[in-house]
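RECORD TYPE: inverse folding
INPUT: structure tokens
STRUCTURE:
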């Protein structure tokens, strides 16, 4: 039997605590750019980046894919049932300490197995939640967010809050109720709704309006229950366009914001945006971040990346400096992520099956975002793009442009202006030059 707080089992025995050694270090188990105590702007890197380890990909994923069996070699997998659940918690807190991350995140079914009934499932969850709570008493790590897995079990074949079956809707409500209680017990800073199957396969059998209305009803019930139990964490919705459903209702940032506003939920929710979900929606990650930022909905980030050659959710660890820089550029302009963070919703590749690869992967991701943070901060400090944008839109700061912005213009006045100005002169957007400047900063900062 695995024992709570049993320090005799060291799941990462070959790995020492990961320290910052600088960009010239050749040690693969050291940070080259992430120096948690280094101040960038007015905060330390630890405070700016708020890194989080995702329980599901790191401790439960086994490497299966549609074409192959499990490949991952995990020392805790020698156990099963509740013993396996306990071993994963022990391994998790050991890795949190090695990486010195401030946060972690999980789905309810990641940390505890389902039982033969909802009652038994909740009892299993209580045991593991109490175990996690005990570990957190002697650890600096906090719960960034938790969520409910309402997509794996066959009961959710037609969705959860958008299911055509009222019994399933009720079960989903009970599961989220328990999730909110878990969030309260563990002091979660956020609670996430990810509707993996909240969508449809075909409109031929779908009452789309009823499903959307029910989804909103479900969200309002969650808000009400959070108030009832005194949970004050931020509610987040994580958009995704497709996979596993043909179309998900929270397809991207703009659609999700529209849904929240339509149903009077906008005061309670922000967005948890994932890089790979953005690309699946046909957007860049920075596009989704900016849409959320300018509308006041940027709450948290799932830090990963996809493969541009593949049309599904590969959830790779983020190593693209171009992407991490532009992501941090938006996050810094947002004033940070508030109660959110950078959660590594990322998994090692199927061929990276050794346990130590989990550490290499997180080091790579943390370094990539640390580098992106410094470059983005320097770009903003130098007002590189702000000055160019200000100049580009300068015509709206005076004359007819200022009248448009201030609401004093009409079609009549605009027509008169156009008649007086037959010759219109545009200026180059200089996109290639701007990308060259961005490359220069990435290479030199």
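DESIGNED SEQUENCE:
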């Amino acid at each position: 039997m695995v024992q709570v707080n049993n320090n005799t089992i060291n799941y990462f025995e070959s790995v020492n605590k990961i320290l910052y050694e600088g960009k010239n270090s050749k040690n693969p188990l050291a940070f080259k750019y992430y120096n948690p105590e280094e101040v960038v702007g007015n905060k330390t890197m630890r405070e700016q980046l708020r890194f989080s380890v995702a329980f599901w990909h790191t401790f439960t994923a086994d490497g299966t894919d549609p074409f192959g069996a499990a490949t991952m070699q995990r020392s805790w997998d020698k156990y099963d049932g509740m013993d396996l659940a306990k071993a994963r918690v022990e391994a998790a807190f050991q890795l949190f300490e090695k990486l010195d991350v401030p946060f972690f995140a999980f789905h309810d079914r990641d940390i505890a197995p389902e039982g033969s009934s909802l009652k038994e499932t909740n009892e299993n969850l209580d045991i593991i939640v109490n175990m996690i709570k005990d570990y957190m008493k002697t650890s600096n790590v906090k719960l960034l967010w938790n969520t409910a897995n309402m997509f794996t079990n066959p009961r959710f074949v037609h969705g959860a809050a958008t299911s055509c079956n009222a019994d399933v809707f009720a079960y989903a409500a009970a599961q989220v109720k328990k999730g909110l209680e878990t969030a309260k017990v563990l002091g979660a800073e956020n609670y996430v709704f990810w509707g993996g199957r909240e969508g449809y396969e075909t409109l031929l059998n779908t009452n789309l309006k009823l499903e959307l209305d029910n989804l909103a009803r479900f969200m309002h019930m969650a808000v009400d229950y959070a108030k009832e139990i005194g949970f004050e964490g931020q509610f987040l919705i994580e958009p995704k366009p497709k996979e596993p459903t043909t179309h998900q209702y929270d397809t991207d940032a703009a659609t999700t914001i529209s849904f929240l506003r339509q149903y009077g939920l906008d005061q309670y929710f922000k967005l948890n945006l994932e890089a790979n979900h953005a690309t699946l929606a046909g957007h860049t990650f920075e596009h989704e971040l900016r849409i959320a930022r300018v509308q006041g909905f940027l709450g948290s980030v799932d830090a990963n990346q996809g493969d541009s050659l593949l049309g599904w959710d590969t959830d790779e660890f983020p190593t693209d400096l171009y992407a991490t820089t532009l992501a941090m550029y938006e996050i810094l302009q947002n004033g940070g992520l508030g109660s959110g963070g950078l959660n590594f919703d990322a998994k090692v590749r199927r061929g990276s099956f050794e346990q130590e690869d989990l550490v290499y992967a997180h080091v790579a991701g943390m370094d990539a975002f640390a580098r992106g943070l410094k470059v983005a901060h320097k770009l903003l400090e130098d007002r590189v793009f702000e000055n160019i944008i200000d100049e580009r839109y300068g015509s709206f700061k005076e004359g007819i442009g200022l009248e448009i912005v201030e609401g004093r213009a009409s079609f009549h006045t605009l027509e008169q202006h156009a008649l007086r100005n037959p010759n219109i002169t545009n200026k180059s957007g200089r996109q290639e030059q701007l990308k060259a400047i961005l490359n220069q900063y990435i290479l030199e900062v």
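NOTES: The first strand starts at residue 39 and ends at 40.
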